[in-house]
């Protein structure tokens, strides 16, 4: 990464790529530990292009499920390739729903959610892990998802998430929850997304795997918006906290620890 920065530092065309790598190197200073075990590897691919702003913007977007109450009223915010945000808030308040509005799985009841035509968004959630074909194996699964892509390329990409050798050929039903999560990560990132939306990504990961996920996210050169209750993951991988409550998503000026203390003091 440093050699890329040195090589292209004075190249105007690559200025934004150089800047994002400088930022990633700065973030790396905050990573506790470098995990070398291939079992604990999360290498998110770097997108080849960086679409210009606006990337994603909500303008007076309101939403309620059909027949249900209004969950959000007049949401206004933007997300770009430098965003590193975690959304926190009580269960059932609508955090996952915001991710679905961003991804385009849901449409606002009123107002607009703009998404750049050039942006690639990947979504990780438990739903994607549960949706894996258990009778298949990781390599076959990837071959079915991306027909025509050379097997070697798919194997290499699975390898970026530690799914190597025999593991890539093992029936999916024999994989642990953490291993299945890594197959799901490989699937959603194959197209080199600019923005990754993560809904409780550390659910089935042990501590070392969470550490490796943090490292992967820190080095990722795109935007991140996650929903999580995992203090370690949040404090290691994002730079902004948004609190979702009372129909709004509001930036919180403090750490996750401060947020928890605030809740306790109420
Ligand atoms: N498909 C749906 N149809 C109707 N209501 C839904 C649907 N999905 C979610 N809800 C309701 O919308 C509200 C917000 O759900 P959402 O899953 O977005 O909350 P959340 O903050 O992500 O919660 P959690 O932290 O428990 O995952 C909840 O009351 C939920 O029951």
Automatic annotation (TrEMBL):
Q: Which SUPFAM superfamilies match?
A: P-loop containing nucleoside triphosphate hydrolases (SSF52540)
Q: Give yes or no: UniProt keyword Repeat.
A: yes
Domain ABC transporter, first and last residues per copy = 56-265
Q: What Pfam families does the annotation carry?
A: ABC_tran, ABC_tran_Xtn
Tell me which InterPro entries the record gives. Answer: AAA+_ATPase, ABC_tran_Xtn, ABC_transporter-like_ATP-bd, ABC_transporter-like_CS, ABCF, P-loop_NTPase
Gene3D superfamilies the UniProt entry points to:
P-loop containing nucleotide triphosphate hydrolases
Annotated PROSITE patterns: ABC_TRANSPORTER_1, ABC_TRANSPORTER_2
The UniProt keyword set, sorted, is: ATP-binding, Nucleotide-binding, Repeat
Query: Per its UniProt record, what SMART domains does this chain match?
Result: AAA
GO terms assigned for molecular function: ATP binding; ATP hydrolysis activity
Q: Name the family.
A: Belongs to the ABC transporter superfamily. ABCF family. EF3 (TC 3.A.1.121) subfamily.
Q: What is this protein's name?
A: ABC transporter domain-containing protein
Q: Which organism is it from?
A: Citrus sinensis
